[in-house]
Each structure stands twice: as C-alpha cells, then as structure tokens.
Amino acid sequence: MKKTIVLIMAMLLVLCGSLYAADGDMLVSGKLGIGTTILGSNKLAVSGGPIDISGQTNPYISLTSSATGNPYGFLQFDQTDGNFMRIYDGSQYSMVWRAGNVGIGTPLPSQKLEVADGDIFLSSQSNPMLRFGHGPTTTYASIFRESATGKLFIKNDQGNAIILDNGNVGIGTTNPSGIAANTVLNLYHAADNGSQLVAEGDAGSAFLSIYSGTAGNPGSIFSNQSIKFGIATSKDTTGFSEKMRLSANGGLSLGNSYVATDPGAGNMILSGNVGIGTTNPGSYKLYVAGPAYATEGWSPSDITFKKNIQSINTPLDKALNLNGVSYEWKTEEYADKGFAKGRHYGVIAQEIEKVLPEVVNTAPDGTKAVAYTELIPVLIEAIKEQQKQIDALKHQVSELKK
After folding, report:
1. 369 and 337 in contact (C-beta within 8 Å)?
2. In Å, how far are 221, 261, 400 from 250, measured between CA atoms?
C-alpha cells in the first residue's frame, strides 16, 4: 500500500513539474497555479486573491535574465524614506509612485507627474497627442503633431489653435505659410472676410503685411536700417510700391513721386495735393476750407526763374475796370467750404476775368477763384501811371500861373 502511494505521488510530480523545497523555499521547474487550474503559457497564475510580498525592509520583485542570471530591474516597496513604490534598475530610478505623485528619473516627485533629466516622447500610429483636461468636464487643451504634415498644433476644445509649421506660426489658420512667401506669423479670422495680418522678414528688412480678402490686394508696413517705418501696396520688395516713409532721422515723405526721397531731419514732403477741411483739394497743392493763419510767407520772384518779362500795358485802364466790393459769404448754403462769417472785402471773379483772365482759375465744378497777389503789380503800375498824369497836370497848372 505504501509503495502504491509513493508511486502515485511520483507520477503527480512528473505531470506537474519538478518541485523542490528546503529551508522554507519552494522551487518549481514547471508552471505553478494558485487558486486556478488554468495556466496557459504563464509560469505563475494567481486567482481569487492578491499576492502578498513582505520582508523585513523594502520587499521587492526581481526581474532576472534566464540566460545570464543578471537582474534587469526591481519592482520595490521602499520604506527607508517614506512609503513609495518604484521601478528600479539598480542604478536609476526609472519610475516612482509616491504620495499620489509619479516620478520618472527622480526619486522624490513633487507633482502628479514629474520627469527629470530627460525628454518625453509621444508616438502613435497617427497624430500623437498630449492632452490637458480640467476636472471631470470635457474642457481640455491639447498639443499634438499631425503625422501627415508634420505640423504641431496647440489647440483647445473650441477648435482655436496655434500651429507651428516649418518654423512658421499660424493662429486661426491651418496654413501658417499663408498666402505670402516667407511668412513667419499668420493671423486669420474667417469672420472678417479673410483679412490677415502677416509678419515677414528677410536680410536687413522686416515687413508686416495686411491682406484684405485676397492676395491680390496686400498692403505692408515695413522697416529696415534706414527706414524706421513705411507703408507700401505690396507684401515685400517684389512689386514694391512705397506710399509713405518715416526715415531714421525723423523725416516724413508721402505719395508716389517723392516717397523714396529723404526729406531731411524733421521735414515732410508730399507728392500729391493736400486738403485741409475738405476731401477734395482738386488741382490745388494746398486747399484750406476755412481761415488760415501765418506769421510770415514768401513767394519766389527771382529773375533767374523768369522769362518773357514784359511791362504791363495800360495798367491804369485795367485798374479802373476793377471793382472792389464788400460782401458776406453764404456760410449756410456752402458749409463745406469753411467760409468765415462777417463782412469781407474783395473782388468778383467773373468781373476780374473780363479784365485780367490770367489771375482767375476755374474749378471743375465751375466756380472761380482769384489770385489776389497778382493784382498787386497791376495796381502798382496803375498808381505810377496815374502819378505821371498828376505830375503832368501839376506842371501845366504851374505854367499857367506864370
């Protein structure tokens, strides 16, 4: 009977694997199941309860190479400096769980996740993402790389995004390169009919281009070493059409003809016509709708600039055909002209035109203006001619008295 029992136990050992025990240890050369008969390919299967690993200090599980016998690492419960779990390879703290915090590369994580002395690498089949959530709600922000294009997105749950693409930054657009070459920053808002703000740069110059709707209608604010501030109707030096320039010395130039000319420190030059108090200066270089005040004024009169110089014929006859009048402007009817109220003194342009048509100008709307300063030479010569007549009469009177 005893021989039969021994034989049955030997057969069970052969079927289950080799079992050896000494000094409280147990070695199994096959597979071991605790609370289960389903082992599969597992060397150890435990079912129905936890595994309790305890020791005097810092109990651990060691992962060892079957080929060399050298340990790969440890899963350890450390009690020496507070209770925490760590995955430890013998020289580095690979991962630590301590007081609800996780540390990678650090033994004492102070945050929910703390990574020291290394990078975080995210990979997936498509669009690896790092997401930041807020409590149990669905509000979140994320950083992810679009695998198809290589663009990096910083995005919130409302769809607003900052996009990095090949060194360029886009806000509100998935194409930071935008509609202009060399775009560094592209801001886009679809509700504003495609208006965009684009900052560009090249060697020695910087451009801030503003697009309204399409690439065909750009405008640029630009700057370089000699031009502190400028405005042009182009995005860069290609097809460049400068309209305004503020030079480094403080000079300001406007318009097409003189804009590239440095006006000098603190000076301003204009190539077009200027209207003050009016939106239509017409053909006048300066049109002021209202009173103007100056403490001094000069007009060029050097003979160097003149040709076909002639004496004024019959100046007295011309002067006698001029009528001086006093009048009031129709300020209510022509409020856009900026006429001053009160009584004024002058002439009627239509009357002057009959005598001296050269000093009368007709505007596109048919109204007329008089160059009052051009009446002065006529009056000067008229006074001189009249004085000659007075002198001749005096001489005749003097002769009659003899």
Report:
1. no
2. 17, 13, 74
Whose CA is closest to 325, among 370, 287, 387?
370
The most distant pair of C-alpha atoms in the chain lies apart, rounded to whole Å, by 193
- Name every residue whose Cβ is closer than 8 Å to that of residue 163 and which is 6 or more positions away in sequence: 151, 152, 153, 154, 169, 170, 171, 173, 174, 176
In order of their start, the domains of the chain are: 2-109 (no CATH), 129-288 (no CATH), 312-400 (1.10.10.10)
**Pairing assessment for the beta strands 252-254 and 242-247 based on DSSP bridges:** antiparallel
- What is the residue-wise DSSP string for 41-81? T-SEEE-SS------SSS-EEEEE-TTT--EEEEEEEE-BT
Burial status of residue 209 (CB atoms within 10 A of its CB: 0-12, 13-18, 19 or more): buried
Give the C-alpha separation, 312 to 377, whole Å. 8
Q: Is the backbone of residue 239 left (phi > 0), alpha (psi -120 to 50) or beta?
A: left
3-state DSSP: the chain helix, strand, coil percent, rounded to 5? 15, 35, 50
Q: What residues contact 75, with CB distance under 8 A and at least 6 apart?
A: 60, 61, 63, 85, 86, 87, 88
SS3 at position 190: helix
Mean pLDDT per 10-residue segment, the chain (402 residues): 47 49 64 82 80 70 66 66 67 72 82 83 76 68 80 75 74 65 62 55 61 57 69 61 79 79 84 87 87 87 95 96 96 91 96 96 92 96 95 91 82
Amino acid at 46: V
CB atoms within 10 A of CB 97: 15
Between CA 150 and CA 167 the distance in angstroms is 11
- Contact residues for 14 (Cβ-Cβ < 8 A; gap 6+): none
- Distances in whole angstroms, Cα of residue 99 to Cα of each of 52, 67, 75, 111, 158: 21, 37, 17, 10, 35
CA distance 221 to 197: 10
Q: Specify whether the CB–CB gap between 30 and 15 falls below 8 A.
A: no
